[in-house]
Each structure stands twice: as structure tokens, then as C-alpha cells.
Amino acid sequence: MKKDDNKSSNITCPIYKSWRELPHIPVSKGQKGSIGETGDWRTFRPEIDKKKCNKCGICYVYCPDGVIVFKEGSVPEIDYTYCKGCGICKVKCPKKVIEMIQERE
Amino acid sequence: MSKMKKTQTDKEKTIIMSGNYAAAWGAKCARVKVVSAYPITPQTTVVEKMAEFVDTKELDANYIKVESEHSVMSSLVGSSMTGARSFTATSGQGLLYMTEMLHWVSSSRLPIVTTIASRGIAPPWNIWAEYTDILSIRDCGWIIQFASTHQEIFDSVLMSYKIAENEDVMLPYFIVYGGFTQSHTSKPVRIPRQTDVDNFLPAPPEKGWSHLNLDPENPITHGNLLMPQQEYLDFRFLIHDSMMKSKKTIHRTIKEFKKSFGRDYKGLVEKYRCDDADVVMISYGALAEQNKNAVDTLREKGRKVGSFKLRYIRPFPTEELMELFDSGVKVIGVADQGTAFGSPTGGPISTEVMSLLGSGKRKIKVLPIIWGLGGRNVTVDEQINLYKHLLRLKNKNEYPVDDAFQQGTYWLGLKTGA
Question: CA–CA separation, B26 vs B389, rounded Å?
Fold first, then answer.
């Protein structure tokens, strides 16, 4: 990773000049997109049919990347900047109202 | 601590127990908080005894039963990351099955202690004393210490946590002893007062380890991907560096232990009548202890022989060996109770000793030896005979001529039809 990359993806990662400064092990604190905008990896985009969604929040629970934002009583929102399009939400949706739509350039 | 049932008054006592029970008693007195267990011969009675301690509330710990050794070490990774003092025991195949997680532990710098009742590796099945199990994972980043008496097994558990949990060390720790010859024989073991143990070995910090602490209020990810340009290489160096520097902590802990309990474990090695010796045999484990008898017999006849016991192989006692090489010794035998197929000598430790020897312009002759594989008996008489081979090498510059001497290594007891 070039130093410029660090800036562009807003990562706060200490840059060590010497092994003497290192802690015992590397540890990451929770921060958004520490490896970049992973939405770029997506081939299929999940889309929730807002009218048919029963707002149960199961997609939010199962999302392995934590990119579904859910507030009790409202339709979940998917953060497409980081959603990789794995499709687990589609499989888990009990109402079958999430569709995977192919991304086009 | 307060939950502990007071089953007996707190005074020093001597109990006749097996080597396995000595390991379990050590873990109990060290007040381990988590034990994860999977049974395997000849280690099983260690974790059985731990289960009993937890069941009778003599020990306040969580006891986790899992389905394999891989899961044993995985679960301890989790428990140790919360700062809990964690313990298990295994042997042979079980240790090999654990191997992947051994790296997770050392590279996460978790001070887990594991006792190993070493045994031969299958196939063919073999459950008796041999160290190929531990020797084959010697480069996993764990400190490796041999305990050659029952008392040493118990005492080592107390010392091991103090060394492993030291802020500058933070490395996992193996205590190794031979299957059956040590694990299932019984000897008196001195159990100190718990208050003395607590003074010697305080509980780990409440807040967990400073470098890594699982805390739901303060979530972290550990073990993330590091790109080649980032510090993967540097963290590897740190593990090696901490291991080498742990020698200081080991020496200090041995001294503190002597001060608290009166028993002196010397250092990374134990030299026996080596000072003026022309011929020295280097070995490890219980056979190294027995080797002292061979030395005594030969000393009575005026032979200048000594025995050099490796207590640690990781970190490797480089300085102590260099000192031995410069002491005027002429011939060295290195006896491995384990194999390294295809290595220069066939034995892992003899190969390492010879690599050190090559770093100077010394004229010391070495006879690599393999002995006791799969629990094959090694008698004092056989050890005396080995010394005679070494003396012949010194006096006449002759290596053994019998058929057991193969590719430069003496395979003691190899069936040669003679």
C-alpha cells in the first residue's frame, strides 16, 4: 500500500519507522472501510422492495460485513459503498423481497 | 479466589503422585482460570485430574470439553485473549493436530502454558517416551522446556506462567516430559503453601494483557491482513527477539523460585561434572538425568567425563553451549530422543549443536546419537558404553565401528543381528 493510498481511503494507520516502536501484535480498531471501498468488488447488488419489506431486520442480523443499517420500524438501508454483494441477505429474507441485480459498468 | 473451597489447611506437604498429577497440581496451584481438554494417552490423567479439581471446587476455573486438540488450542486462544490464565495438556498426535493453532497462540503473543507427556509418533502406533512430537513443532514460537523429574514438572508450571506472562516475553510455554516413564510413575512431590505460591505468582492483571484484550465495550480486530510492505516481517522479528531475550526473564525467575521455595533449577542448562571434562554428553529429558549415574561410574574410574542437560531448547542455550565449547572439552556426544529425518545427523538437536560448533575454528569432535525412540529402554550401562565410544574418539580418533553407527550417527540399540 502506497502512502497516498492511506490518505485516499481515510485510514488512520500508524506508520512505523522501526521495529523498536512496534507493539507485540497488530490490532485494528473498528473503522469504516479499512481495506478500501469494498462496494467496488460487487457483481450483484441487493435491492430491497421497500413496499413489501416487513421491517423484521433479519437481513441486518445476517449481513457479514455490517453494511445494512436498520432502525426498528423502518426499512433497512444498504450501504452500497461497502456492500460486496454476497447475497446472504437475499437468502435470509423471510419475505423474499430482496433481489440481486447485476451491476453494469 | 474467594470461591475456592478450603479443603485443607494451607501448609506445605509432600504427596506421592504421578508426573501427570504433578502437572495438574502445578496448574491448580497456579490458579489457572480456564482449562480446555481433549484426552490422549499418555497425557489423559492430567486433564482428568484438572476436571476433578474443578468438580470438587478445589480450583475455581472454567473447564471446556471440546472435540479435538485443534479446538483445545482454539478455545484457549479465546480465553487467553480475555486475560484468563489458560492451561491444557496433550501428547503425540494430539500436539501435531494442534499445530496450526500453536502459531495463532505465539503470533498473538498469548501466555498459554501446555504440558506435554511426549510419545512416539504413529504409524506404527507408539505411546511411549520419545520427543519427536515436541521436537517437530520446535519452531512455532513457543518456549520449550524439559522437566526431568516429577518435582520439576510441578515447579515448572509455577515458573512457566511467571515467565510467559512477563510483559517483555508474552510467549506461550511448553513443559515437556516423557510419556509413562515420567507421566505414569509415582514419586514424592513437595507442594508448597498456596500463600507462598500466590506471592511468587500473582494473578494476571484484571484488565487483561496490555497488547490484546477482548472487551465487548472496546471492540478490536486481531490477526488482520498485513500487506507485504507493512510490518508482517517486523512482527516475525519481534517474536524471535522476545524469545531470545526471554532468557533474562528465565534466569531471573529461576533465581526468584530458588529464593521462595529453595529448589534451584540453575538455568537453561544443567551441567554435571563438566568443569574439567574432556568428554561431555549433551542430552535432554529424563535420560539426561539418568546419564549422571553413568558419569559417576566413569568418574570413579578416573575418566574425565561430564553430562550436559538441556533444560530449554527454545530459546536455544547458545551462550551456555559456546561456554562449553571453550571449556577445553575435546569430544561431545549429542543424544537425541527424537528424529529429524533427512537432517544432517538424523536428530534435530545434534544438528543444531553442530551448527553452533561450526561457527568458530574449534577442533571438537562430535558424535551424534539417537536413543530411546518409541520408549526403547536405555540403561545406565548403555550410557556408559556410549561414553566409552566418546573416549575412544578422543584417545584414538576412532568412531564406533559397529553397525549401529550409520551415516555419521550412532543409533543406540539399532538391531544389527550381532
Answer: 40
Domain boundary among B223, B238, B261: B261
Same domain, B217 and B117: yes
CATH code: domain of residue A34? 3.30.70.20
Distance from C-alpha of B17 to C-alpha of B187, rounded to nearest angstrom: 6
In a domain, B330, yes or no: yes
- Assigned domain for B1 exists: no
- Strands A77-78 and A68-69 turn out to be antiparallel
Q: Does residue B231 belong to the interface with chain A, where contact is any CB pair within 8 Å? A: yes
Cα three-residue angle B231-B234-B238, rounded to 5 degrees: 135
- The span from the CA of B242 to the CA of B55, in Å, is 37
Tell me which residue range forms the domain holding A12. 3-102
Same domain, B184 and B240: yes
Residue found by looking up cell 565401528 in the block = B401
Residue A56 Ramachandran class (φ > 0 left, ψ -120 to 50 alpha, else beta): alpha
Q: Express each pLDDT in B12-47 by its tens digit.
A: 999 999 999 999 999 999 999 999 999 999 999 999
Q: Does B399 touch chain A (CB under 8 A)?
A: no
pLDDT digits (tens, 9 = 90+) for B214-259: 988 888 888 888 889 999 999 999 999 999 999 999 999 999 999 9
Enumerate the residues of chain A whose CB falls inside 8 A of the CB of residue B238: 19, 22, 24
In chain B, which among 264-283 make CB contacts under 8 A with chain A?
none
For the four alpha carbons of A58, A64, A66 and A67, in that order, the dihedral sign comes to: negative
Which A residues, 8 through 47, put their C-beta within 8 Å of a C-beta on chain B? 16, 19, 22-30, 34-35
**Considering CB atoms only, which of B230, B235, B241 is closest to A25?**
B235
Q: What is the DSSP string of B365-393?
A: EEEEEE--GGG----HHHHHHHHHHHHHH
| Structural domain for B320, as ranges | 269-411
How confident is the model over B151-185, as pLDDT tens digits? 999 999 999 999 999 999 999 999 999 999 999 99
Taking an 8 Å cut-off on Cβ atoms, the answer to whether B235 and A29 are in contact is no
Cell numbers found for residue B268: 537453561
Q: Which of B216, B231, B261 is the last residue of a domain?
A: B261
pLDDT digits (tens, 9 = 90+) for A17-26: 999 999 999 9
Could you tell me if A66 lies within 8 Å of chain B, comparing CB atoms? no
**Are B234 and A16 within 8 A, CB to CB?**
yes
